[in-house]
């Protein structure tokens, strides 16, 4: 196998493993899908943001961080603030009783 094909395979499998894992984003998309709220815009946003983040990583985010080491501190604190907010919102949903109500979708009549 040539080196470029090997790198392509490595990149493709890494991307699939990142996208296929059910994490916070996947759970959010599944929840919104079950609720039937804003499905298309959410899926489009998630696809574009995943592509952007993967692209930034490929084209040199590491080089940016090497050139400006302070930038990683910004990422650290913004990421920590986001995770704290997300954790708070998730904990709030756990302790406040609620139910997911899915309306019945009318079925098409057969001819």
How would you describe the overall organization of this protein?
The protein is mainly alpha-helical. The chain is 76% helix and 0% strand. It is built from five helices and no strands. Helix 2 runs antiparallel to helix 3. The N and C termini lie far apart (54 Å). The model has no long low-confidence stretch (mean pLDDT 81).
Helices, strands, pairings?
Blueprint: H1 3-20, H2 24-35, H3 39-59, H4 61-67, H5 70-95
Compressed to H and E, one letter per element, the order equals: HHHHH
- Percent in strands: under 5%
What is the overall silhouette?
A: flat
What's the total number of strands? 0
Q: End-to-end distance, in Å?
A: 54 Å
SS-derived structural category: mainly alpha
**Overall pLDDT:** 81
Short description:
With 111 residues, this protein is mainly alpha-helical.
Keywords:
111 residues; mainly alpha; flat
